[in-house]
Amino acid sequence: MIRAGFGSEDLEAVFPVKRPIRERCEVKTFYAESGRETALWAVLDFMDFDLPAVNGLKEAVVRAAGVEWKHVHILTTHNHGAVTCGEADREALARSVAAAAVSAKKNAAPAVVRSAFAEVREQVNYRRRIYIPELDGSATCFYGPCLGNGFDSSPFVEHFLHELSLEKTAYTGRMPTRRPVQKFERGDPTLFIMEFASASDGRPLGSFVRFAAHAVCCNQPGFYSSDYPWHVRKILSGRFGGITLFFNGPCAEIAPGIECKTSGGEQWLGRVLAETALSAVRNEPFEPLEIFEDRCRTVRLPVRPEILSGRVDLPAAGLPASLSERKRHLERIHFADTLEFLLEKYRSGEKTLSGTVEVELGLLRLNARKILAFPGETFSSTAVMVAAGMEENVATVTEHGRTVMYIPPREEYRRGGYESICAIVSPEAEEILRREAGRFLRE
């Protein structure tokens, strides 16, 4: 029988600035063992990582827990209310992750599991990219659409067009409008839950839960917070016992349905997701954990030409009169302003700047269930296409390993919007990632 264990460590010591912590930021770990094969999955309440940081954490786990390098997986909740790896005390971070890994290994026991997929009934997230016909392009709305306003995009679109007339782009804000109602599409509603218990005495070991939405319900500069994932973990750990890991699903274009950052959306969303998970798995029978496989696959994705050249060409003339052309012009300016940041992300960890960037896919199989982990900010549409035809056996998650920022499908580059500005990779990269992920999963 397969052994499974869970660990946890607080991350307060790694933060560069001492300020209040509202929802505690932590690293949660899962360890599995079958004979000589072992694996360690760590999920941190962090924004993102670069490749040197990921490699440093892997090395710490290898030394402390004896897990082979290729079977150590580092993920984040993509939490905007914590820190990025560039801000953290990396030595303290490595110690914390290693300690959580050792704890998970120490606590491992022959396990039984039960799991379920469920659809969250009420709309709690939305696809934050909205197509505006008169611009023949997409705009991005970070927050504001919610149940209270029916997820109506029209007031946001009105505001976006108004700001364009003032030579600005706006990703938040609403204005009165007579435009017909156009709802933001619902984001991925799928939740996955897996609960582990000791095979010998039934004591709780821990659980997984997966849902897709940016962790941006309450991120503000005055405090640190692990946002809604903390509330999911708190409720499930309290009800199940053991330690809960929260995996964010591919959510590059998905935001939580909150009205504002001070509306308590993190508590509401955490409660809805936890109750959905509890209801979904309550009547499922436990079964022995008898199948365990862990794999990783390296993929190289092509980099945008502007990043390779270090230059974004801008038209010499002033802003166009046409709003559609003005939008494209302003987005090129934003891209130019972001170029140095993107260059840094590209260069980080690359031994040679060959025109491609290295990412890694992860795959964990536990009995019939598979967890497929994507790198960077992958779109939910990418994950859906990869998992199509696999029935209800694949839970897709994101932020596996280093970040390469957004990985938009090709059409999204043409439509523009925030996500296409903040992309290191070129338009064909998503197709490559999707193809390799599909092969990986089916093999």
Observed structural traits:
nine-stranded mixed beta sheet, alpha/beta, four-stranded mixed beta sheet, 443 residues, globular, 21 strands
Brief summary:
The protein has helices at residues 51-65, 90-106, 154-165, 227-240, 265-281, 305-309, 323-347, 380-387, 410-415, 418-421, 429-442, and strands at 3-10, 21-23, 26-34, 37-44, 72-76, 109-119, 125-127, 129-132, 137-140, 190-198, 204-211, 224-225, 243-248, 254-256, 287-288, 292-302, 356-366, 369-373, 377-378, 394-397, 406-407. It is of the alpha/beta class and 443 residues long.
Number of helices: 11
Mean pLDDT: 94
Number of strands: 21
- Rg over CA atoms: 22 Å
Low-confidence stretches: none
Instruction: Profile the largest sheet.
Output: 9 strands, mixed
Helix content: 25-40%
Backbone shape: globular
Structural class by sheet pairing and helices: alpha/beta
The end-to-end distance, rounded to whole angstroms, is 24 Å
Task: Explain what you see.
There is one protein chain. The protein is of the alpha/beta class and 443 residues long. The protein is 31% helix and 27% strand. Strands 1, 3, 4, 5, 6, 10, 11, 13 and 15 form a 9-stranded mixed beta sheet that branches. Helix 1 packs across helix 2 and helix 4 packs parallel to helix 5. The radius of gyration is 22 Å and the shape is globular. The model has no long low-confidence stretch (mean pLDDT 94).
How is the topology of this model organized?
Elements lengths: L2 E8 L10 E3 L2 E9 L2 E8 L6 H15 L6 E5 L13 H17 L2 E11 L5 E3 L1 E4 L4 E4 L13 H12 L24 E9 L5 E8 L12 E2 L1 H14 L2 E6 L5 E3 L8 H17 L5 E2 L3 E11 L2 H5 L13 H25 L8 E11 L2 E5 L3 E2 L1 H8 L6 E4 L8 E2 L2 H6 L2 H4 L7 H14 L1
Parallel strand pairs: 2-12, 4-5, 11-13, 18-20, 19-21
Antiparallel strand pairs: 1-3, 1-6, 3-4, 6-10, 6-15, 7-14, 8-9, 10-11, 16-17, 17-18
